[in-house]
Design a protein that fits this description.
The protein is α/β, with parallel strands linked by helices and 446 residues long. The protein has three domains: 153 residues, FAD/NAD(P)-binding domain; 83 residues, protoporphyrinogen ix oxidase, domain 3, CATH 1.10.3110; 101 residues, Alpha-Beta Complex (Polyamine Oxidase, Chain A, domain 2). Helices cover 34% and strands 21% of the residues. It has 16 helices and 20 strands. The strands form five sheets. It has a seven-stranded mixed beta sheet with strand order 8-7-16-17-18-15-19. A five-stranded parallel beta sheet has the order 10-2-1-14-20. Helix 5 runs antiparallel to helix 6. The chain is globular and about 65 Å long.
Length: 446
């Protein structure tokens, strides 16, 4: 039975431990904090359920669905987003518009001008980029879709996912699926059509994607994983030494000295220097400290339903950078999951800061509320102040996959090559979404 030491009890570490245990491994998860789950935190406040980090999981393939169903007791807690979650909104000229969800809607929406719609129709005829140099998300979007669709579609989308600046993010590494559509099929619309044809050829019904959470919030996922793993999850751990032996590893923690066949590190890139790794390994991983994690503030606000004019009939609203607002966007949290607000109330989750506006992020709840309420009032028709406030400030939030990010990924693979039995598994390696983190854990093999 292989012995594996996993450092970090965020979702990557816990999910990897569960996956490997089901294959027969003896895993231990070491977490320096007293709380598990990393950025996944759910707080019950006066009948409201506030999420401090991620709000949902997209079930994008049957492997993720099967993995979640394998966790004892978790399936009974799962809830699926209301159909309203399929609807999204964007801001233009101070007004909130629904995002087109079909070709017909794309041609009739007031969100984009006639010239922008005509430019969209030209996308299949835009030549594939032959230049092999790395391209930013902004340059890619402008080249294939035009300037207006960049500003009023791609830019706010990037703000909602990365809280980042599209001009700085690498298309290849931040959005590898978009990169592949052009590289393999010559364009976005061509790529989408090719995927549809390929799906029909297989004769298999397409997997129905869904957005889920849990009755008591997303933190149920790490909690149920930890419960299933039992004493294999250790919190409040102080690691004194990590040593590479000839054929295995020694990890000293809390006075214990144990040997392991493998060590999996899931700590954030900026925390690697705090681990007592061998000096040469520490030096090899040192470049990862330069990965940027801009600050993001997550402000949950509860309102009486009667004090908000907007129907809130969707997942949320994203704000393009050119609109010059104080918020990146807001989720209509109580609209897409039941049990997030008391009867007669609604819950919004507002995001501020990121690489776009790091100076606006703050750990001062009163100051942040003063910054965001004018935007929410104008965009959503809020007539009275909130009845509940909850702020979580992340000084280092989301890793930015910027131009040149391949250098960091090469640093990781080189270290793993030179140190057999070492693996780096985190959102700065496999992708920032919960789905990507779970997919990386599911792919873990003995």
């Amino acid at each position: 039975m292989p012995r594996i030491c996993i450092i970090g009890a965020g979702i990557s570490g816990l999910a990897a431990a569960w996956q490997l245990r089901q294959q027969g491994a003896d895993c231990i998860v070491l977490e320096k904090a007293q709380r598990i789950g990393g950025a996944i935190r759910s707080e019950q406040i006066d009948g409201f359920l506030a999420e401090a980090g991620p709000n949902s999981i997209q079930i994008s393939n049957p492997e993720i669905a099967a993995f979640l169903n394998s966790i004892p007791g978790l399936k009974d807690q799962q809830i699926t987003a209301n159909t309203a979650a399929n609807k999204r909104f964007l801001v233009r000229d101070g007004r909130v518009y629904p995002v087109p969800m079909s070709p017909l809607q794309a041609l009739t929406t007031p969100l984009w001008s006639r010239s922008a719609k005509l430019r969209l129709l030209k996308e299949p005829f835009v030549s594939r980029r032959e230049d092999t140099s790395e391209e930013s998300v902004a340059d890619f979007a402008c080249r294939r879709l035009g300037s207006e669709l960049y500003h009023y579609a791609i830019n706010p989308l990037v703000g909602g996912i990365y809280a980042g600046k599209p001009e700085a993010l690498s298309l290849r590494y931040a959005f590898p699926k978009l990169y592949a559509l052009e590289a393999q099929n010559g364009g976005l619309i061509r790529g989408a059509l090719a995927k549809m044809r390929a799906s029909k050829k297989t004769g298999q019904p397409r997997f129905k994607k869904s957005i889920i959470s849990f009755k008591d919030g997303l933190e149920s996922l790490p909690q149920y994983l930890s419960k299933a793993l039992g004493t294999s999850v250790q919190t409040g751990v102080r690691i004194e030494r990590i040593k590479r032996n000839v054929t295995d590893w020694t990890v000293d923690w809390n006075g214990n000295s144990e040997r392991y066949d493998r060590v999996i590190i899931t700590a954030p890139a900026h925390a690697l220097s705090e681990l007592p790794l061998p000096q040469d390994l520490q030096e090899a991983l040192a470049p990862l400290a330069a990965i940027e994690y801009p600050p993001v503030s997550v402000l949950s606000l509860g309102f009486q339903r009667s004090s908000v004019d907007h129907l809130l009939d969707g997942f949320g609203v994203l704000v393009p950078e050119c609109e010059q607002r104080s918020i990146l966007g807001a989720l209509f949290t109580s609209s897409f999951f039941e049990g997030r607000a008391p009867r007669g109330s609604i819950l919004l989750t507002v995001f501020v800061g990121g690489d776009r506006q790091p100076h606006l992020s703050s750990n001062n709840a009163s100051l942040l509320e003063q910054r965001v309420l004018p935007d929410l009032t104008e965009l959503l028709g809020i007539k009275e102040g909130p009845v509940m406030r909850h702020l979580t400030h992340w000084p280092r939030a989301i890793p930015q996959y910027k131009i040149g990010y391949g250098h960091y990924l090469k640093t990781i693979t080189d270290a793993e090559t030179h140190y057999p039995g070492l693996e780096i598994m985190s959102n700065y390696r496999n992708g920032i979404s919960l789905s990507y983190c779970l997919e990386a854990a599911i792919a873990a093999k003995l």
